[in-house]
């Protein structure tokens, strides 16, 4: 499921969301926590998909 998503697209999405949240000062602190959590989840999913490819 996640293998069909290119890594570049994920990186671009994270970059876009980060810049969008950073531009909104009201939700900057909350947004940064959400972005950090999202990046952690995506990196875990990416690692899982890499492990699946090797098996």
What does this structure look like?
This protein starts with 6 loop residues before the first helix and ends with a helix. With 55 residues, it is mostly helical. The protein has one domain (2-54). 80% of the residues lie in helices and 0% in strands. It contains two helices and no strands.
Average pLDDT: 72
Task: Flag low-confidence runs.
Answer: none
Number of helices: 2
Provide the succession of SSEs. HH
Kindly estimate the percentage of residues that lie in beta strands according to DSSP.
Answer: under 5%
**Sheet with most strands:** none
As a whole number of angstroms, the C-alpha radius of gyration is 13 Å
Number of domains: 1
Tally of DSSP β-strands: 0
CA-to-CA gap between the ends?
16 Å
**What fraction, in percent, of the residue positions are helical?**
over 70%
Q: Output the structural class.
A: mainly alpha
Shape, per Cα inertia axes: elongated
């Amino acid at each position: 499921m996640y293998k069909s998503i290119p890594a570049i697209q994920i990186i671009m999405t994270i970059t876009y969301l980060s810049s969008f949240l950073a531009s909104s000062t009201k939700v900057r602190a909350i947004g940064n926590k959400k972005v950090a959590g999202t990046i952690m989840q995506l990196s875990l999913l990416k690692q899982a998909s890499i492990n699946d490819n090797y098996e």
